[in-house]
Write a structure and sequence with these properties.
Elements lengths: L3 E4 L5 H7 L17 E4 L13 H17 L11 H4 L6 H19 L1 H6 L5 H22 L8 H15 L6 H12 L5 H15 L6 H23 L9 H22 L1 H6 L7 H6 L4 H6 L4 H25 L4 H23 L13 H17 L1 H9 L1
Antiparallel strand pairs: 1-2
Helix pairs in contact: 2-10, 2-11, 4-6, 4-8, 6-8, 6-9, 6-10, 7-9, 9-10, 10-11, 11-15, 11-16, 15-16, 16-17, 17-18
The structure holds ligand LST6JFWI and manganese (II) ion.
Catalytic activity: 2 (2E,6E,10E)-geranylgeranyl diphosphate = 15-cis-phytoene + 2 diphosphate
Keywords: Carotenoid biosynthesis, Isoprene biosynthesis, Membrane, Transferase, Transmembrane, Transmembrane helix
Family: Belongs to the phytoene/squalene synthase family.
Length: 392
């Protein structure tokens, strides 16, 4: 059935109800927002594509991922024969080691602290996380890298086809081969990977976000997905009593928190590229507009607006914290390290008196270095016990 997606203004909830059913999925204690997105099928029949908030739509993915990992379902059940697909005089084992080594080199080059943080993970998990990292980095490079101006939606379609091949055991190159192997070994599903590509498509066609619901979906696509890809590899602690949904939810929250932080740090830089990732309705409520961002003046209005945005990002970090202790013990350290480091960017924006137009918020070398043992202590003892231990 061919269908077009229309954006219509349904007006109040009651009106919407008369046009299509308000879909209420069972996310307890979350308000069901009516989203005015309606899909018309052939003959004008309303298909009711989605009247749910982005949060609810994303939560369905979370539930699916959690179910997969519970069942220990492999993302792809493939026989792995690298020599069939990659040329060279190697045995399978040599090629795989080389593939993972290459991934490690990319991580060490692009994300030193993260690379260091992976050193405490078990070797197998570390290598798998590197492979996922490299795929994410390459995907982001498509729209943000030196060839970005040549990237079309078609190119992203080809990248998605290549992803399917990777999941079916037909890698194109060594980095793909590492990922092919990873997804054959761990219960990693293709959905979050496809969703990340969808986020890159969104970036190509959209430069404004009407409200937080739209922004949330974008953040899920480009960053929340990373959490969902990583948990099956990081592993859940055998003694964990938390539900898998809770853990996935925390992983999603960490991705969202990181991306919101990214956005707040890069307001000036993004503005100069003609992009505003801040919710337009919230800007308007604060008495601000795109013009204020392009002018880049730190006013009282801007400071107040930023305070609200920072508070929201911190709430997502808090939600993420709840899940880290449930991960397998060796995986907790890098996750705490990334959480502590990213969250400090928010402190740095505050320290810059909310000038994210001309000053880039960053975590200095000393704080970066101090965060690693702090993360290690928290991973070992938990945040409360670490505080008690230090206060003794
Ligand atoms: C239970 C629990 C809390 C589990 C932890 C789950 C977990 C490991 C979550 C990781 C969250 C995370 C690190 C998300 C990355 C978010 C992010 C910064 C996304 C960036 C997107 C695009 O942004 P933009 O273009 O605006 O930014 P740049 O200017 O380009 O920086 C990304 C760049 C998408 C690509 C993401 C990556 C390259 C990072 C991938 C990282 C991993 C696979 C490793 C994650 C593991 C650890 C230990 C952090
Ligand atoms: Mn990017």
């Amino acid at each position: 059935m061919s269908s077009v997606v229309l954006w219509v203004n349904c007006g109040p909830k009651e009106n919407a109800k008369s046009m299509v059913d308000i879909c209420s999925i069972g996310r307890t204690q979350r308000s069901v927002k009516v989203c005015s997105r309606i899909k018309f099928g052939s003959g004008g029949a309303v298909v009711a594509e989605s009247l749910r908030s982005s949060e609810e739509r994303v939560y369905e993915v979370v539930l699916k991922q959690a179910a997969l990992v519970r069942e220990e379902k492999r993302g792809a059940n493939i026989e792995f024969d690298l020599e069939k697909t990659i040329e060279g005089d190697f045995s399978n084992g040599d090629l795989l080691n080389l593939a993972y080594d290459r991934c490690g080199e990319v991580c060490a080059e692009y994300a030193k602290t993260f690379y260091l943080g992976t050193q405490l993970m078990t070797e197998e998990r570390r290598k798998a996380i590197w492979a996922i990292y490299v795929w994410c980095r390459r995907t982001d490079e498509l729209v943000d890298g030196p060839n970005a101006s040549h990237i079309t939606p078609k190119a992203l379609d080809r990248w998605e086809q290549r992803l399917s091949d990777v999941f079916e055991g037909r890698p194109y190159d060594l980095y793909d081969a590492a990922l092919s192997h990873t997804v054959s070994k761990y219960p990693v599903d293709i959905q979050p990977f496809k969703d990340m590509i969808e986020g890159m498509r969104m970036d190509l066609r959209k430069s404004r976000y009407n409200n937080f619901d739209e922004l949330y979906l974008y953040c899920y696509y480009v960053a929340g997905t990373v959490g969902l890809m990583s948990v099956p590899v990081m592993g859940i602690a055998p003694q964990s009593k938390a539900s898998t949904e809770t853990i996935y939810n925390a992983a999603l929250a960490l991705g969202i928190a990181n991306q919101l932080t990214n956005i707040l740090r890069d307001v000036g830089e993004d503005g100069r590229r003609g992009r505003v990732y801040l919710p337009q309705d919230e800007l308007a409520q604060a008495g601000l507009s795109d013009d204020d961002i392009m002018r880049g003046r730190v006013t009282e209005k801007w400071r107040n607006f930023m305070k609200g945005q920072i508070k929201r990002a911190r709430m997502f970090f808090d939600e993420a914290e709840k899940g880290v202790a449930e991960l397998s013990s060796a995986s907790r350290w890098p996750v705490w390290a990334s959480l502590l480091l990213y969250r400090q960017i928010l402190d740095s924006i505050e320290a810059n008196d909310y000038d994210n137009f001309t000053k880039r918020a960053y975590v200095g070398k000393v704080n970066k270095l101090l965060s690693l043992p702090a993360a290690y202590g928290i991973a070992l003892l938990g945040p409360q016990n670490l505080t008690k231990f230090l206060m003794r």
